[in-house]
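To the structural biology subgroup,

Please find below the input and predicted structure for Neutral metalloproteinase, which we are adding to the shared reference set this quarter. The sequence is reproduced verbatim from the submission form. If anyone notices a discrepancy with their own records, reply to this email rather than editing the shared folder directly, so we keep one authoritative version.
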Amino acid sequence: AQAAKQTLIAGRPTFHSTLELSIGADGALMAEVTAAPTRTIFDAQNTEKLPGLIVRREDDEPVDDVSVNEAFDGLGATFQLLLDAFGRDSLDGAGAALNATVHYGENYDNAFWDGSRMVFGDGDGEVFTGFTRSISVIGHELGHGVIQSSAGLVYQGQSGALNESIADVLGVLTEQHLLGQTADQATWLVGAGIFTDAVQGRALRSMIEPGTAYDDDELGRDPQPAHMRDYVNTTEDNGGVHINSGIPNRAFALAAKAIGGHAWEGAGLVWYRALTGGLSSTAGFTEFAEQTIAAAASIGDSVETAVRDAWIAVGVIE
Ligand code: ASN
Ligand code: ZN
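Predicted structure (tokenized):
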């Protein structure tokens, strides 16, 4: 119903949404809009030209290209998480279309959000297989779209690491929601299954044990810190945004496990409310921690304690 309200207020339910009318117990007419995604998958045909050719639209059957179908399904899984858990209709809360390009570049070893769409490389086949293979990676890239249209966290230093961390949160929640996992059942890995067998590693990152996702002869060791005492001061990667995200990542995983049950209903909702409740675009770890504690307090004492303890455990607050 919350999603319905948002859709109605926004005044632009998408074509794929359905409107249901019913009479309530008090005789009042009730309208419920069930939002649905509007996905388009493009193929860059191994060039770096965006967006590429349209290869699958919302109402099309699966096509003869696994990457296309994986991207399509991953976009759908992310849409469902946002709607079911947070009542958010797509990335912007107003039914924005979801666009993704696959087969970007040649042997391209990454996936990214370019400000308006997700873009996925095929990987080089030596270190990485395709980037559409992981639901948490797809949810991560779409997460950048949610962050962009809410707090707009500046991609530099601590606000940048928060941007990365919240994208990881939305990525793993998408996967946990799709699989119906509780916080205790979840792997807390981002990007499991995208390394080739040649790599000594499980995933790109571990939220519960940052720094342990891989330890490979060629790639080296996962550089993520799990505590403020190991915060990495660097000018690389916008101030280590993919490295220092390990600290808030661990806080989230600890809070989720302490609260128990489905993470998107507990810690996930708290993080989402902090993100969308007036967080400043330059927020650092401490400001975000305070916002999550305030959001948790409005749910209940035990949730507040779990969230506060998690931030203390990673050294962000005392
Ligand atoms: N996969 C990376 C990310 O989404 C790409 C990047 O560094 N922008 O964070
Ligand atoms: Zn990212």
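Summary notes: Confidence is low (pLDDT under 50) at residues 1-14. The chain is about 40% helix and 15% strand.

Regards,
Lab coordination
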